[in-house]
Amino acid sequence: MPTTPTLDARHLTVTGVVQGVGFRPFVHRLATRFGLTGWVRNVAGTVEIRLEGPDDQLDAFDAALRAEAPSVSRIDAVWSVDAESEGATTFTIAESEDADTLRPVPPDLAICEECERELFDAADRRYRHPFITCTNCGPRYTVIDALPYDRERTSMKAFALCPRCAAEYAAPDDRRFHAETVACPDCGPRVWFEGGGADRVAEGDSAVRMAATALRMGAVVGVRGLGGFHLAVDATNDAAVRRLRARKQRDAKPLAVMVRTLDDARAVARIDEREAAVLTSSARPIVLLTPRDGTPLASALAPGLDRIGLLLAYTPLHHLLLAAVGRPLVMTSGNLSEEPIAIGLEEGRARLRPLVDAFLMHDRDIVSRCDDSVVRIAKPHEILMRRARGYAPVPIALPVASPEPLVAVGAQLKNTFALARDGQAFVSPHIGDLDELAALEHWQEAYTRYRALFRVAPTFAVRDLHPGYLSTRVAEELGLRRVIAVQHHHAHVAAVAAEHGVTTPVVGLAFDGTGYGDDGNVWGAEALISDLSGYRRVGQMRYVPLPGGDAAAREPWRVAVGFETLAGWPSEAFGLAYYGVPTSMREGAHQQVLKGVNAPMASSLGRLFDAAAAVLGVRRHASFEGQAAMELEALAGDLPAAPLPFPTYEQDNRLHLDPVPLLQALGEGRRHGVDVALLAARFHESVVEAAVDLARLIAGSFALDTVVLSGGAFQNARLLTRIARRLAEARLRVLVPHLLGPNDGAISYGQAAVASWILSRE
Ligand code: ZN
Ligand code: ZN
Ligand code: FE
Fold this sequence. Notes:
This protein is 32% helix and 22% strand. It has 21 helices and 32 strands. Helix 12 (470-477) links the parallel strand 22 (460-464) and strand 23. One zinc ion is lined by residues 161-162, 164-165, 183-184, 186-187.
């Protein structure tokens, strides 16, 4: 009896970062190569593939799918089930299925190598086109209005494809097959150069050249970019950099520098392989690097610090501009001080005109605000200092799914929020400090956009314990069914444990500047026994009164007054802390402490760094929180040093670290002429030693084997690497922040993890 050869069929579901990264065209090429028929389509954040053909070819497809996936994609899982043959005769890319389930949105991707080559190839039809992209690169999150990701739901919908682009879009063997943001000089967006009066002085390539000339002459140029405006200035021109600082009202915070290529970066900084990999990744973050001696970079870029923030050009427009300028450019967020970055044409003009001499504009709308991300390598760790462009909005899994969608509103400083649904947390890009109205508006705008984009309608809100935070008010005013409060340092520890999928109790070290404690005091040097359901505070730094309250974070000398009072006022060891501070002010602060007026009690590692900087005579006034700590770290470098006394005592069933002997030893040493760099190094080692002892003692007493390191103080590479290594040597399992940074940007995710756990248990 004759048999018809039956074809096998399989149905594949691929999860991960698989939309907007050229995945469907890739699948099409692969299926064609193996002679398979069927279809591929996007279904709510996953890719579904239907394949028909001989069994061995199906297996070959399976292997190649993982081995050859586009480098910017990330396959989390492939679910494969056998199916009935439908007798398909071709392989097609089917329409997107708009289902109401999980909906990842791809992050923005830096220009790829092939597009970069075409950009500078005079024979290519996209030669010098500032909006060249393909399926492997280009804007995504910042231009997407809604899902599924198709051109008509992006800000590219305003630019109808010309016949040649349309042909490329439809050709399966073309790199621009189904590239939703494809454009060319005939049909793409435009750039122009604009003077103070919004007059278009030049367009196209001459606009780029005119901007370059202005920059070479020292002008500040507002450059409309991918996730917002940058303020650009010649990074080798000290006077120009100072002018930018003055206008931006940013007197000391480091400014990021953009160069065109990795070779250009190597000319100004020392870069190892790991750092090079991060610099050139499709996320293209700012990477903190050690500058080379004698670089032409302006000294005003990062005063007092041993690192500069460097990033590579990530859009074609950046490439054209940097090539024309021929020098590194400062590229800092287009905003005043800590305000949100400007994005709209009118908004940019209105807000930035007082800061710039001219604008380099384009007419492709920016749908979502997104700052540059910041990364630091502290081998073997990669510290995410700011998670934004290139990372957000990739979801992060929660160890326990919330039974209902929720929003975690995050912390006061370095705010992000998180929407949680179906076991995934969608953490917003960095928003900024929630202490002014502009930031609050940005928060609400981003929240509204995120809710629509991911179709999450929260029924629960999660907030910090602090009754006075703006974020607390925001959470209460959302009018949701219930608001859950999570303590700041519990959220820090939970965030790190949760991203590692750990739900069992851990020893959590939470070291940062400020968080509201459940006793109403300021916390920030805490040892918790913590799991997602709650925490017990088993260790802390000895409380110190902070005269002036919040003002103390900007005035390290005030912190020194608090510690000196504990040491026994007056104490000679603290003498250097007040140089240039009027005696009356110092006395006034001392009186505040004695009378307990506006002198909250604090257990804070950030404030200990401030006091140490003051006592060492390094810094008595700071222009931003954390400045003193960054300078101490820079001073210490990797100088080997022995710890100074930083004893522990027990009180109220809790271990207390007493920093007073440490500060006295530092002050004495400095007064006796010991090198300040060595003392800074000894200070670091003292903190390392104390932290390791504390964690080991607690782990031993409670039979725990895992230690979590969390909080902004772990942005300090020396603390992070030394404490992690020493704990690992003591055979403890050490969890460090990875997907989210150590700082308050991770709080929203930690809040979401805790609340999801609580709600799932009720
Ligand atoms: Zn490309
Ligand atoms: Zn075109
Ligand atoms: Fe914090």
